[in-house]
TrEMBL record:
GO terms for biological process: thiamine biosynthetic process; thiamine diphosphate biosynthetic process. It holds the Pfam family AIRS. Reaction mechanism of ThiL seems to utilize a direct, inline transfer of the gamma-phosphate of ATP to TMP rather than a phosphorylated enzyme intermediate. The gene is thiL. Mg(2+) 3 binds at residues 30, 75, 211. This is Thiamine-monophosphate kinase. It catalyses: thiamine phosphate + ATP = thiamine diphosphate + ADP. Keywords: ATP-binding, Kinase, Magnesium, Metal-binding, Nucleotide-binding, Thiamine biosynthesis, Transferase. InterPro entries: PurM-like_C_dom, PurM-like_C_sf, PurM-like_N, PurM-like_N_sf, ThiL-like. Its EC number is 2.7.4.16. One of its GO terms (molecular function) is thiamine-phosphate kinase activity. It comes from Pseudomonas taetrolens.
Length: 319
């Protein structure tokens, strides 16, 4: 099977590649064409997943398809953008029809869930690597950036943390757990749920936002740095799941929630006056701390004592 047959069979034929709102021209020409309503801006983000670095190789291609798009779509959620479309640059060592079929099915599944249309990409031979670029639209001036946190704002997260980090030894086959514990943790790892609706609900309300991919403490450091404020996190208010606590024990579960990666849950700062409405509307908003004058991210225990750990999260190229 050649490059063009592959694109036609597995990607151009996928339900998510059949166009939709905002897609003027999809797969098949030199560029795709998107239209953005006047008064809105285009939000764009790229994520690369390298075999052996970002996912175990071999792994289940259906799950990889889901996960590769979910991690990219999570950046749209973090900006408060409405999903439009995505491209897929696929580097493959060999063409295996079964693998491609399953990958495309997983991708399509997440695309339908996130309301994203596949509009193009590139297909090359080499070590397995996936680059996905997502496009969204957001009313001009209302994108949720990282730089607006104000002293006095609440620091919030959109859900339980640490599940995906907790799942990693299960993913890597280093240990096992009974299904009642393993299944919810593995679901978080393989099928993150980008918080797209929450991101859109936070437009005009949150003062800063991002999606947690490298661990809560590390990612909150980005908000603190660009907003030129300090963030004070209350350890006991960081939400973790029952499955994670049972699997790892309370102390390690907390560690996973603070420093483990791959959550793809939103973290955001919010003037306290905005909280009651969001909670009344049923959005998952967990207050975990506050924005303060100063710099950096501090962690405190229930008595207010500083318990900030030294190591914050994962960084490529760090010695
Ligand atoms: P070009 O040589 O002009 O860059 P290609 O031959 O690489 O174009 O691709 C042909 C068409 O197929 C383009 O519209 C491109 O966006 C699309 N395409 C290529 N690879 C993929 C893929 N993996 N998934 C979706 N669309 C793809
Ligand atoms: Mg090309």
């Amino acid at each position: 099977m050649g490059e063009f047959e592959l694109i036609r069979n597995f990607f151009a034929a996928a339900p998510c590649a059949q166009g939709g709102e905002g897609v003027v021209l999809g797969i098949g020409d030199d560029c795709a064409l998107l239209s953005v309503p006047s008064g809105e801006q285009l939000a764009i983000s790229t994520d690369t997943l390298v075999a052996g670095v970002h996912f175990a190789d071999p792994c289940d291609p259906f799950l990889l398809g889901q996960r590769s798009l979910a991690v990219a779509a999570s950046d749209l959620a973090a900006m408060g953008a409405t999903p439009l479309a995505f491209t897929l640059a696929l580097t493959l060592p060999t063409v295996e029809a079964d693998w491609l079929q399953a990958y495309a099915r997983g991708l399509n599944h997440m695309a339908q869930r996130c309301d994203l249309r596949l509009i193009g990409g590139d297909t090359t031979r080499g070590p397995l690597c996936l680059t996905l670029t997502v496009f969204g639209r957001v009313p001009a001036g209302l994108a949720l950036t990282r730089n607006g946190a104000q002293p006095g704002d609440l620091l919030c997260v959109g859900g339980e943390l640490g599940n995906a980090a907790g799942a990693l030894p299960l993913v890597l086959g280093q240990c096992s757990a009974e299904p009642a514990i393993a299944e919810p943790l593995l679901a978080h790892y393989w099928s993150p749920q980008p918080q797209l609706a929450l991101g859109q609900a936070l437009r005009g309300k949150a003062t800063a936002a991002l999606d947690i991919s490298d661990g809560l403490l590390a990612d909150c450091g980005h908000i603190a740095a660009v907003s030129r404020v300090g963030l004070r996190i209350e350890n006991h208010r960081v939400p973790t799941s029952a499955a994670l606590q049972t699997f790892l024990g309370a102390a390690q579960a907390q560690q996973a929630a603070l420093s483990g990666g791959d959550d793809y849950v939103l973290a955001f700062t919010l003037p306290a006056a905005e909280l009651p409405t969001l909670q009344a509307e049923g959005w998952p908003v967990h207050v975990i701390g506050r924005v303060v004058e100063g710099q950096g991210v501090g962690l405190v225990d229930e008595q207010g004592r500083d318990i900030t750990p030294a190591i914050r999260g994962y960084q490529h190229f760090r010695a």
